[in-house]
Amino acid sequence: MAASRRPVDQDYVIEDVKEAFQCTILWCEGRACLEYDTQEELDHISSYVKEKFDRDLLDVFFTAIESIPPES
Question: In a 3-state reduction of DSSP, which class is residue 33?
């Protein structure tokens, strides 16, 4: 898939990632934070954003944090 060469709205990228990966987006002071489950998932999302939108993950999201597994 070719990367888009025209500017894409950050909100569009966030929604696209959310739909493509069924991941959680947290909001902190109006800034999007990506919550991921595994390093492999984070790497996959990062590659997806780079390939599809020609942007680094942290240019779209304020930060990325690993999910804390629920206690049993």
Answer: strand
H/E segment holding residue 63: strand 63-66
Q: CA-to-CA distance for 18 and 13, rounded, in angstroms?
A: 9
DSSP helix/strand/coil, 29: coil
* Tokens representing residue 15 in the block: 């929604």
pTM for this prediction: 0.83
Express each pLDDT in 20-62 by its tens digit: 998 999 999 999 999 999 999 999 999 999 999 999 999 999 9
CB-count burial class (<10 Å; 0-12, 13-18, 19+) for 36: buried
